[in-house]
Design goal:
The chain is of the alpha+beta class. The chain has helices at about 45-55, 90-100, 105-115, 160-165, 170-180, 200-215, 240-250, 260-270, 285-290, 300-325, 380-385, and strands at about 60, 65, 115-120, 135-140, 150-155, 230, 275, 335-340, 345, 360-370, 375-380. It folds into three domains: about 40-120 and about 130-180, no CATH class; about 200-275, no CATH class; about 285-385, no CATH class. Strands 8, 9, 10 and 11 form a four-stranded antiparallel sheet that branches. Helix 3 (about 105-115) packs across helix 5 (about 170-180) and helix 6 packs across helix 8 (about 260-270).
């Protein structure tokens, strides 16, 4: 008789006293961080749009308007003759240096560094009140050459300054408003302020956590002791759980609830380390360890090659035994056996089944390779308890 090894599907079985990890507000000891993806901000369309905008690249606004790349503006023709003080290549170098900064905070710092705010000295009509109390001076940095060792700041007019950086005058006012007058530049709080209307209320968090705890995790004959992850039925998904949550929610117990799938998913991922049980093909421990090693020794490589040789040899013997059993017309028996994954009952698409205590059913299968017949021996947890 030819036999093969047992096939196990690993699932963590929680203790009966605490089936799910406690929420951060009630947890006494720190739990292992959730491995689920929470946010991938770099992939958000708003973040991509903001990065393109801050780098002066072509982008599309939320309203669908196409904004072209930033280009170097035309030089001025003022009476100070700024166009003679700085060449086109030097202006283009300033333009690139400004837009390579990539963030509004650094660009504001650039504007403050190369501009000077000072009180207005001369007023033509002193009797008429004037709101403008300050005036600005503007400079452009020139890259040092072979004859210069330091960057030289060239005094230019406002038009030359704005056209060289390809910005409007609004950025000058904003930069000086963000500047504290010493060294600190205030952060760009657009989209990061605390005055958001979407606030997670305590009852919303409590209702989602209670709903997830109402599900019964999938049990198995194998316990993965080194893992803190808990598995739900493989037919469940986050959107399906959200639909069940809307039917399960009781307004007499909870004052508020999660309104969207995204809100529900974020709360689940932040407070639980859950997964959906999907049976996978068993992997050999020796092969898995060998593939994950980066610094393999010659002894380990020889051991792994012998392991592969034994595997191929065993597979050939199995094929020979199978062919012999088929040709013997029932005189020789060649069989393989396997433990199936644990079957959870009751099983179905009815919503109430997901909240019921599961009964674990085990299945031991023997397959006659010659006659191509299988025998299944099934039992449940009640037998195990009687034994």
């Amino acid at each position: 008789m030819t036999t093969t090894g047992h096939s196990h599907h690993q699932v963590l079985v929680p203790n009966s006293d605490e089936e799910y990890p406690a929420t951060p507000a009630t947890s006494a000891t720190p739990k292992k961080k959730c491995k689920k993806r929470l946010r991938r901000k770099s992939e958000w369309s708003d973040v991509k749009r903001k990065c393109l905008k801050n780098n002066g690249k072509k982008h599309v606004t939320k309203r669908g308007k196409v904004v072209d790349d930033k280009i170097l503006g035309a030089p001025c023709h003022c009476r100070y003759r700024c166009f003679e003080k700085i060449s086109h290549s030097q202006r283009y170098d300033c333009f690139q240096r400004f837009w390579r900064l990539g963030t509004r905070e650094k660009q504001w710092d650039f504007v403050v560094k190369y501009s000077k705010k000072q009180p207005k000295n001369m007023r033509l009509n002193r009797e008429t009140p004037n709101k403008r109390q300050f005036t600005y001076k503007y400079f452009l940095p020139i890259t040092p050459t072979s004859t210069q060792s330091q960057i030289e700041n060239v005094n230019v007019c406002k038009t030359m300054f704005l056209n060289t950086l390809s910005v409007s005058s609004k950025i000058i006012r904003t930069a000086w408003e963000k500047y504290d007058g010493c060294t600190v530049m205030e952060e760009d709080m657009r989209g990061r302020h605390a005055n958001h209307h979407r606030v997670i209320k305590p009852d919303t968090l409590r209702s989602v956590c209670d709903h997830v705890r109402s599900f019964v995790p999938v049990e198995s004959h194998y316990i993965r002791k080194s893992s803190t992850k808990l598995y739900l039925d493989g037919s469940l998904t986050i959107p399906k759980m959200f639909q069940l949550y809307k039917d399960w929610f009781d307004s007499s117990i909870y004052a508020s609830k999660a309104d969207t799938v995204r809100q529900y998913r974020d709360l689940v991922n932040q407070n639980f380390n859950l997964g959906f049980f999907i049976p996978k093909k068993d992997q050999c421990d020796v092969c898995h360890i060998y593939r994950n090693k980066t610094d393999r020794t010659h002894e380990e490589e020889d051991s792994y090659n012998k392991h592969l040789l034994n595997k191929n040899t065993a597979r050939k013997f199995k094929d020979v035994d199978k062919r012999t059993a088929v040709e013997s017309c029932g005189k020789i028996l060649s069989a393989v056996f396997d433990f199936q994954k644990v079957l959870s009952c009751p099983h179905g698409q009815v919503s109430v089944f997901y909240y019921k205590r599961k009964l674990s059913c085990l299945n031991f299968t023997i397959f006659d390779m010659g006659n191509k017949k299988a025998c299944c021996y099934m039992w449940d947890d009640s037998r195990k308890e009687r034994c």
